[in-house]
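User: I'm curious what two different proteins look like when written out as structure tokens. Can you demonstrate?

Assistant: Sure. I'll show them one after the other, since each token string lines up with its own sequence. Here's the first protein:
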Amino acid sequence: MPGAKNVDRTGETVPPRPALAIGPAGVRRPKPSWMSGYSLRLLISDAVLVLIAVAAAQLFWSGIRGHEPAVEAGAWLSFGYTIASLVLWSAWMLVLLFFGTRDPRLVGSGLEEYGRVAGASLRLFGVIAIVALLFRIDLARGYIITAFPVGVILVVGARWCWRQWLRRERRRSGKYMVRILVVGSMESVDHLMGEFRRRPYLGFDVVGACYTDLPSGEGRSVTEAAPLGTLAEIPVIVREQRLHAVALAGSEGLPASTVRKIAWELESTGVDLMVAPAITDVAGPRIHTRPVGGLPLIYVESPSYEAGARVAKSLFDFGAALALTFLASPVLLIAAIAVATSSKGPVLFKQPRIGLNGKVFHIYKFRSMREGADAELAELLERQGTAGTPLFKVEDDPRITRVGRILRKYSIDELPQLFNVLRGDMSLVGPRPQRAEEVALYDPAASRRLLVKPGITGLWQISGRSDLSWEDAIRWDLYYVENWSLIDDMLTLIRTVGVVLRSHGAR
């Protein structure tokens, strides 16, 4: 735009950009420089692990079946396990490539990546079964049945390990990032920036923004991301800044005609266009994109609180709690003796808490404080200035006993809550139950915690434990309420073990 000033990431004013001619579509799609190396690691990992799976199946079944052929179809086709393994390995690698299991947009994304690996493998073995049936080929079924699950487990397990490595590197060093430009109003951009900042493991490096409502003369001092130019300059910006994607934050100031124009202009750059609607803390399984009359509408399903889901969760909780109680019985006994012999007072601490739909129940813990400690809570909270926050945590709590500190460090004091789960008052996974005084301070958003049973552990506990602020804690709890599933419960329980062993954030 004539007379417009451009500001770079440092806040410096730079000369106006020259006009750029937009060429035809079909240019090469830019990828982060690190993506090729990361994809190569995945390729080598997949190749080695698939080879291990088919080789292990061959060694097992060729030993059982002696010198019998692995594949046989009358006189015209017959070969042994070695050739069958080479053919299977080659076909498996091809389907992993064909179905985009190493797509740059997909790698490191978690369940979607794992699902694509499993889906590609399942299709391969489905094709093998159909071909064998149509051409009456006699396969070594045990060999095939063994190779398939072993290969999927190995490859998915390796993808999980690579994902953990990638997320750790992003948090620690800020490497392996995807450079993006955010477009939208100041409020929308700041909101999206906050989401990225809370989740650095996602790997989005916001280079700057194009604002739809930035007042003339305003700069970086009042915004989260540095203004890099106007909407008309987006194609130039993505080339100059070597960006990999453009994210549209919300719809304020971005009518359909503008969005369409941006999409058309980006076709010549090969840069991806991402649309971030004003929907946060909603997991993928609840979101569906459906074309209706040519419009790509986003459907957001309501949280699943149906009777069937509740029954399934209750059955899982009861069975798992029963097994955990049996396995933890030696620890329960030792902890009870330690509490009883180290200080005066009962072994178990019982306190009323608020549960599902506001129902009051009594929670059980091993006593980790001196007798009568509950009467001192109000004074301690007033002293540290947190009496008005619905998270009654005392810093450097003087009421905790010496044995209690050990019990809390490894969350052993929470083990008696397994009996709360068996009684049906609590779940293994869910928002932590709070006192009536804390619940009285809830706003409407926090009150949604009461839509599910409280839990022994949850997203709050595996994301920082007592180190989290109330705002972050409630955010994780609400995310769980909106998106819970049995699979996520199982994953949370597994992650809880690691968090407890590291004893990070425990008080």
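Here's a second, unrelated protein for contrast:
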Amino acid sequence: MQQYSGIISVILLFVDGLLFGVAVKKGIISAVLLVIAILLASYVGLSVPYLSTVDILRHVENIALSMYNHLGPIFVGYPIVFIVGLAIGIWKG
């Protein structure tokens, strides 16, 4: 089963991109309204406590580094597979 883990991960990533693409197409108005709400909240002075952009970026960087160490060179193909799934989801969704 270990020998198929890379292939299974790529397939699951494609399906994830596909589902995300469908969700983006269906929820584009909600996303725009969410961005407007966040901008208005930040203008008023509201924010999520203990959460900053630096913390989010550091967490994403740690996840990416961990995935690269675990998967190796196949990690480079992951964004491509996700983007293909996303494009198909938006197109067909």
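A detail about the second structure: Residues 2-92 form one domain.
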